[in-house]
Amino acid sequence: MAELTTRHLSIAVAESLTGGLLVAELVRIPGASVVVRGGVVAYDTALKRSLLHVDSSVLNVHGPVHADVAKQMAGGVRTLLAVNDVRADVGVSTTGVAGPGPDGGHPAGTVFIGLSKGTGSWAVPLQLDGDRAEIRAETVRQAIDAVRALIAQGDAE
Predict the structure, then answer these.
(1) I want to staple 37 with a disulfide (CB 3.0 to 4.6 A). Which of 12, 85, 110, 125 is the partner?
(2) Residue 40 belongs to what H/E stretch?
(3) Which H helix or E strand runs over 115?
């Protein structure tokens, strides 16, 4: 992502339903090591709590497919993948239901992308169509678009 390089920003990724596809897409680009800190696949809900510090009460009330979980994952991975005690500038996360069927009361295609930058955090809710592979691929595309929009928003501040 040239935008991250140009602005000298680092990114950390926390994934659930995308299972590593997002960080794989980011590191596919030559020179990614300048900006990509790394990625964590926290597929199990317990790892969202223990590694990414997602609040237990949020998980207990809402389960792992929720806007607040996505936001907390994005913030948590920035800290988890800190280098020399410096958090990543941007955190992005994915959580949701890829299918084929519903899970936890959510239909397949229910997705939340989490974003964290500075002291803020945001969630992008999505309701995607398609099979499991299509939902996961579209989540990656939407997450990259969301990061681009977040970075562009920083220019307007």
Answers:
(1) 12
(2) strand 36-41
(3) strand 110-117
